[in-house]
Amino acid sequence: MDVEQPFHTDVAYYESRAEGIATTGGVLLAEAQLDLARRHGHASWDELVRRVEALRTGAEPPTPFLLAYRAVEDDDLDALRELLDAHPDLVRVRGTNGNDLLGMANDLRLVQLLLDRGADPNRGNDYGWTKLHQAGYANRRDLAETMLAAGGRLDVSARGDGGTPLVCALFWGHREVVDLLGTAPGNLRVAAGLGDLDLITALAGRPQAGAHRGFYRPHGGFPAWTPSDHPQEVLDEGLVWAAKAGRDEAVEALVSLGADVDADPYRGTALTWAAAKGRVSTIRTLVRLGANVNRLATFGGPDHGEGVTALHLAAQSGRLEAVETLLELGADPTVKDAQHGGDPVGWAEFGGHDDVAALIKTTQV
Q: Fewer CB within a 10 Å sphere, N or C end of the chain?
């Protein structure tokens, strides 16, 4: 394995990466720290820490890769071009967690420059994450089009079997980019997220419905989970994926096939996801089909949502119309979440949505 180059100069960044390795790999933090140190060519964690500190203080001059990373962070096309002129191999250097410059570039001009200089469009980081995965995750058509033109593959999995760029988009309920990202893998949650009623019908009750579901989180901020092939879980997860993408006909079809409208298969019910995404029509559909508007659920990372309602999530996300709809349908604005003890007003204020908070307050008078 290529030695990974540090590109941050704060030790806290590497501590966070080690924690992510420990969580993902199910190992002790000390083991993860040693693993991360060795990836950087160091024999111990303390040795890696000393190296990072030397880069921070200037005791060691910045490497070309570190300078290139800073140019990428600043969207500085001229600085990056000059560095690539002087050090052409920079497009092949891997940083922490296997991230290369292409993987870290956000500005499309820099992405194209790196591709023109020979960056591999299908090179993933240590988790298999490619630039097309990023395009799906960020719902970016421009980036997806650029990477497809450069030869980006749609069948590469990251963070588990079945974690294709399309699945990374559908996990968040994105719709604007999915038509560019193919249909793989063709399981039930993909069919649900795409609103493909024919495929939903064809898959119902078949093993393929629950195949290739090793991917279940886009980053280590979500808790560990082992998807099963239990038919009910497969149906319930499909319902959640249909709801977050606002595929109302698919929601109807999946409930008719036996999906539990209130199920929380992994970090969110269909209703909480629809609320967080502002899918107003889907909220109405789910409640009409029997969803409990005040159901307490999980959501997001372990420090985010425990015992939260759809109203909490809509409020935090600033989804004003969704909040209005939930209140109309009987959502209780006084419920406090189980982890932070906050009501929907507090969640709206925490999210910086004063208009939403003000609306909810009018129902508490």
A: C
